[in-house]
Here is the input.
Amino acid sequence: MANGIAAQAPAASAGRRMTMQKFMRRRSTTAFLLALPLIVLIAALVIYPAFFAVYLSMLDRAMENFTGLRNILFLLHFDTFWMVVEQSCIFAISAVIFKALIGFVSAHFVHNLPAKGQRKWRGMLLVPWVIPTAMSTIAWFWLFDPSYSAFNWILAKFGIAPISWLGVTSWARFSVILVNIWYGAPFFLIMYLAALKSVPDQLYEAAAIDGANWWQKVWYVTLPMMRNIIAITMLFSLIVTFANFDIVRILTSGGPVDTTHVFATWAFSLGIQGNNIPMGASVSLFMLPILGVAAFFILRDITRRGSTV
Here is the structure.
């Protein structure tokens, strides 16, 4: 009896070793273990602050008493809040659309250049994206300055009256969107250029044999092959643009009369400058459902296309 038990022990140990070896050979396990440090870092820098922001939004101004959803309900009845929602949507959606269009056109331009000239143009067109945002935005602020505006100087040469770029709501909104497009378009350029280089030349040759013109090649070959990267890039840019802070803060600080505030700048204005941290946290949380809905529809569309291929 004892000999039988002693014989079973090594067999059980060997079986456990084989199970562990099989477990470690699985690609999903290896991938998880390699990604574990990044998961821990994200949890520490993103997930914990997010839950802490939810907790802060449920406190009173003195951060001593729990108030539940009172701050959020107050914002829903605050006219400035809905103006910030409108401005944030206009700012993010219009900027992302124009960045995608400019990036798509410029990517085709660079892609069709000779190989020797591509490096030079890629380097020049990436300059706006490489320069720190705060530094480049300060330069734009001087271009929009009412007294020394280079744009107004050019307009004066054509007999056009100077424009108060940052002092009128419509022009101030146009200005912050323009700067965001100038800064973000190179990101779309480099992503779309990489996608273009992955499209097989045989597809274009087949389309040319069938008599397709340039526009038909773009519509029936390029866009279907790039559709996923276009969707992912626009989603990523939408998230970053919605959370943008420095461009609006440096150019207008939310003015005139709070009409250019986005979620990030208004949350800073209420939470830090207004000494109302819970209210600022409540404002910042409203980005989550808006971006969540956008991410859901974009990712669902990508998954649906992937399942039909």
About this structure: Residues 16 and 240 are 47 Å apart (CA to CA). The radius of gyration is 27 Å. The chain has 15 helices and no strands. The first helix runs from residue 2 to 25.
